[in-house]
Amino acid sequence: MKQLELSLAYFYPTLMNTYGDYGNVLALIHRARIRGISLKVHHINIADNFDSNSYDLLFMGGGQDVSQSIVAKDLMSKKNEIKKFIFGNKPGLLICGAYQLFGKEFVTLQKEIIPGLELLPIVTIAHAERLIGDVLLTSQRFGQIIGFENHSGKTYFLDKDNHPLGRVMVGGGNNASDGNEGIIYHNVIASYLHGSLLPKNPKITDFLLEQAFILKYPKQIFLKADSKIEDEARLQAIKKIF
Amino acid sequence: MRSIRFRIITYFGKIIYFVSVKVLRGSGSALPGRVVEVIYPKFIKDLFYYQDFQHRIIITGTNGKTTTTKLIVHGLNKVSKKPIFTNRTGSNLPRGIISQYLADVSWGLKLGSQVAVLEVDEGMIESLIGAINPDNIIILNIFRDQLDRFGESNNVFIRIKQKITEYLNCNPSQKVKIYLNADDPIVSRINDNALFFGVDTTIKTQHITTEPSSLDYDYDLISREPLLYNSYTIAHLGDYYLSSGSWKRPKRDFVLVHLEKNKPIFNTKEESIKIDSKLQGNYNLYNQVAALSLLSDFLKPSQLSTVFEDFQSAFGRQEKIEIGDNTINLNLVKNPVGMVECLNLLQFQNPDFIIFILNNRYADSEDVSWIWDVDLSSLINYCQKKNFNNSKNLKNNVYVFGDRKYDMGLRLYYSGIQYSVITNSVLSTINNFQNANISIFATYTAMLDFREELVNNKIVQKKLV
User: Fold this and answer.
1) Which member of B152, B405, B415 has the closest CB to residue A18?
2) Residue whose C-alpha is closest to residue B72's, from B284, B295, B267
């Protein structure tokens, strides 16, 4: 039988990787591998071409302010292909800075408006105070979700019917007021959570892999896999939050 | 003349120090200073105002502060008859410096030191530089570190640059020497008129160019142009330039050249000096060149050559401890770049067992995300070489412990490294080994806990200083 293979577009691995988000890529590789799927990681850097047909999954992390301003410009040139990717229901994970950049706009402290990709129905407004600390969410689809947030932008949904990644039990979330954290839009998950997010939330890892898998291999079964090691780390982290 | 209030608070602080060390059996490196700081916030400023130091040397940066400080003190002790005032325990917040003063000052309020050599937390530079009023400043490097405490590293850069510029402008008459790491494109941007030091080495840190996660900077923070490199030493440190040609690594006044297996050679504008030293690893080359650059003002070239010969590593910095017939190599890890560099030392330490202790208390960084940015290549290679992952090998060779041991375990698991979880204590695990060489990689509070365990079992003496 032919080797099962999925292809991950890892956006700006050096520029957008300030908060340990590389762990998400390791988690995807690992949980694909235990199912006999080889996950090929392709770096998409500044000025690289991005052809949505070549990839099954998309990932982008957060970066420092300087990096983010450089990335924002470059992303615009890839907008049409990214749009095709998202509306083709391919799965993606966007963390922190990437979450903000994919929204409608970012309003700085000086009320300056930085346009976003306008692919997610959200808007982010800078605040002087940072939201920093452990976060615990609940979600019907994923159960308890844990992570660590560290952001000064507050993000708001533009459409009341948007689905958050989870409801905040502990922590600030999107904006510390409406109780939402992150967004699920088509099959893209965007969130402020580091930690990294995927290693301690294997259900989210599996969701992303499964969506990619059924699009590429519609006739095959996505295997179940245990998550004993991940769950130990989850339990210890949850105990620490309470 | 000291104010009455300062005198009373000093006596009061000394009593707290005495109680905390003798009665509560603590290390006394933070609590007494913290109490004094709360009731008398200006204490540290007044301390340096009243105390007539000839030289006030401060060392800051993300990695290497404690070792560099200790190297400088070690060197100055060879030529100074009076004791050097220094925060020996690596307690580098104001509370640590105050605690040290309370420990050292006599009941007659005499200190007897003419030189202060202090490591200062990079997050504290803003508040401390004006209080300490240094005549020598060393800045080692800026890596990403504890984002929940310090914020992003380019903000650290902006804050330090502003503060240093302000300080120099306010002190035009005073001669302030600034030593900057020329190989760090962030640090070398702090001041153009500084003295610059750097390292040339043929010993490569593994996988430095393939792993994106340990590189902090691709861009010059001032021009925002991409940085290009002729060579790397550690993470973003190396021989860099901008493609436009508008800027490159500054000319270096002091260079430590380390060619494979030879003794490092310290080059200044006038001299070329062979250095005797047992310190290993590229980051220690940086610590040594920083210390040598400053010491070259105080010591003769012949003295510099042997100055580090009898140097003992600082607490938890490649410190060696004997426990029964086992030898322990203690490595403090705090951030991705530092941990990658420490893991590179496995080839020298050559352990039979490896123990990782991960805590996430305030001083460690409460966010454990950073462990995912550590490139484990040298650990993976080492485990393969030693056959640690062989399933026929019934002995476990890699262990995890600490408040977040399962996070550490998961990190190892995702990189294909087999490990066991320590459920009782690190010491009892070590006592099960026989005639073994063990490397421990621990975060700051984990290191303190382990030290406490050793003290309680009378393996090491109480005092860190």
Assistant:
1) B152
2) B295
